[in-house]
Specification:
The protein contains 6 helices and 11 strands. The chain is an alpha+beta fold and 338 residues long. The longest helix has 32 residues. The relative contact order is 0.12.
Length: 338
Amino acid sequence: MPAVRPELRIGTWLTARRVDLLLGIAATVAAGTGLASWAVGTDWGRWLTIAHALAGLSLLALAPAKLRGSVRTGLKRRRATRWLSMLLGALVTATVVLGVLHATGLWHGVGYWSALWTHVLLVAFVAPLLVWHIVSRPGRPTVADLDRRAFVGGGIALAAAGAAYWIQQFAVGDNRRFTGSHEVASFKPAEMPTTMWLNDSSPRVVASDWELTVAGEPVAIESLRDRAAPVTADLDCTGGWWSRQAWDAVPLAELLPPSDEPTLEVTSLTGYSRLFPARDAANLYLAVGYGGEPLRRGHGAPVRLVAPGRRGFWWVKWVSSIQAVNRPWWLQLPFPAE
């Protein structure tokens, strides 16, 4: 019987190739569910958030087996590319740790350098390094490695991840929404964070000079204020926080004339825009204030969209036009590029 290469065996049954396969599956599931949960604001998205957490925590559960096996052997070989592999390991570790910090609330922050945004940014560096690491290994895993032992090992890692997730949820309590976001300044609009999507910026135009058109017709901001009524809705930002406010708002269904077009395009003065199904007009609102006071400029003054059940990047700020268009609402990037 040929001797078993020591670098391919971690224990008596879980080989390094099986560990690599399980790590690859966990990383892929974590990336896919993470992006999907980032976009979904409805209640069923909680299952994406849970799957993302379990996949990420499984990476931590499998890390000791990886260190005992191929990492230790790879360092002994002193390949020229070992530094890239070490960088990949460091980035994966930092990504998972940032996710845990955000989830537990030990550090979640607000803005581009919050734990969550940094977590997402690091994924962009991890992905190409991970692909390189897999395809460059001479003993990369195959489908044949997905056998009973791999399933048992994966099951153990998933059970450990589930236990860690339960402890985490018990410690955090109900501060987090089902998306994973932390509550900030509910019904305190003056304390609600001011964040923007990527390179969007807040325009400096006074309300009296604001030009708003709905279906091609001008609409005065003052007329919206006269018609506005409180609408309680949760703004759930992709930066990892949510805030519940009583928005002084008017439903789009009251402002739009009858139309056969399937889609509504809501555009900001900055050029930022999103497409919505026209059938959702009754659940989309133009807000001019919150809690009886006018919107602040960083929150979209003088008029912004309120889109309950959707993540923050759908809530278009500084709205300048709303029009019905003849194209599918889903024919747009899932995340705006502006």
